[in-house]
Amino acid sequence: VNRYSRVLTSFTLLFGCLAIQIFLLSQVKRFVSAKAVHDVRIAYDRFEHVMYDGHTTVFAETPTLERRGIGGELGQFFNKTRFHDLTDEEQASACRIPLSQPMFFWTVLFVWSLVCMREIRVTKELFLSLVKNTETCPSMVNALEDEDGVEGGAFVIARLTIGMKVILTMLVLLPRFGITCYLLWVGCRWLLATNNFADLILNSVALEFILCLKDVLYLAMVPRRSQLDLADTTIKPPQPKEPESLAAFTGTVSWGLVAAAWVTCYMGFRGFGWHVNGWQQVLREYQWDVHNVCTQQVLREYQWDVHNVCTQQVLREYQWDVHNVCTQQVLREYQWDVHNVCTQWVLERYAV
Fold first, then answer.
1. Strand-pair partners of 270
2. β-bridge pairing 233-235 and 144-146
3. What is the helix (H) or strand (E) element at residue 8, kind and residue range?
4. Cα–Cα distance between 45 and 96 in angstroms, integer?
5. Which pLDDT belongs to residue 329?
6. Which residues contact 203 (CB under 8 A, 6 or more apart)?
7. Residue 350 has pLDDT above 80, yes or no
8. What pLDDT score was predicted for residue 333?
9. How far, in Å, CA of 124 to CA of 331, rounded?
10. Is 279 in contact with 185 (CB distance < 8 Å)?
């Protein structure tokens, strides 16, 4: 009875975790990402229409109007001075588009992609350990072996049946891989549509909680006895033998290279006078014409000389003439007419 109840509890938590993750992914795509994409498209459409003085082509009309300037930033119709024709809110919305600061946004996307690559790498290693490198057996009776020969010590999963390997692959590994890949795409889409640099960092952190949901459910709902049993159970390593070699020490760097390649292909990139649009569908046919205008705007608004600013601040707060201030202070404390006071004192003392 205890064994069946433990199996039932494990499958219930497994299906519950998958259901919650899939539900959250669908709702993030439907309510969170869709709203952000809608707003950033409107902001960029307005920027294009004003900066090109109406010389635009209609790229899309549904679900939102998307116009793109003719000729790009180096074309004859682009006019930087028209940036001030935008309202303050429109200027802020355009300059907060993540692609307006491509290096900063690339770095944020790269970190988020590394988080997902870590999850994919763990999934791959679990597949190698449990499915490929674990011996196949007809029964689960001899699945465990004593790892250290000490009674009550740790066990290693040495054998698994075909059915168990299929269950692990179909219900654990493939869903984990699929959810991670989908979350990588949805996360990149949401981050690209996040029209606020502060929220860009917060959103990238918030996305990880979907990946960590399985850990939360395990720590919160799995019985302590099952956790202790799992702690004493190990699996075979992904690679039975791994000799010392250059590939062994540098091969894991390939995960970082894959993440960098993904981010570059998703975002696209810009050269000197040319650009390549990536796979992203948030701002389709992006002209890469916001960066220079917004960078100059920020420098004009916030570039200062620290000495001058501090000096002016001090003068505004403490500007005074020492002589006048001290004189006024003395007069307030000791204001009297010496002649009259002394005269009255003399008359009172020596009145005869």
1. 275
2. unpaired
3. helix 2-27
4. 14
5. 63
6. 190, 191, 194
7. no
8. 59
9. 85
10. no
Give the gyration radius of the chain's Cα atoms. 34
The DSSP H or E segment spanning 290 is none
Residue with tokens 């059915």: 163
Q: Are 92 and 242 in contact (CB under 8 A)?
A: no
Q: Let me know if 306 is exposed, middle or buried by CB neighbors in 10 A (0-12, 13-18, 19+).
A: exposed
Sign of CA dihedral 43, 192, 187, 197: negative
In terms of C-beta density within 10 A (0-12 exposed, 13-18 middle, 19 or more buried), how is residue 67 classed?
buried
Name the nearest CA neighbour of 259 among 112, 105, 102: 112
Token representation of residue 19 = 């259901």
Q: Is the pLDDT of residue 30 over 70?
A: yes
Here the tokens at position 64 are: 């939102």
Both tokens of 33, joined, read 């990402």
Task: Give the model confidence (pLDDT) of 218-244 as tens digits.
Answer: 999 988 888 888 888 888 888 777 777
Percent of the chain with pLDDT over 90: 44
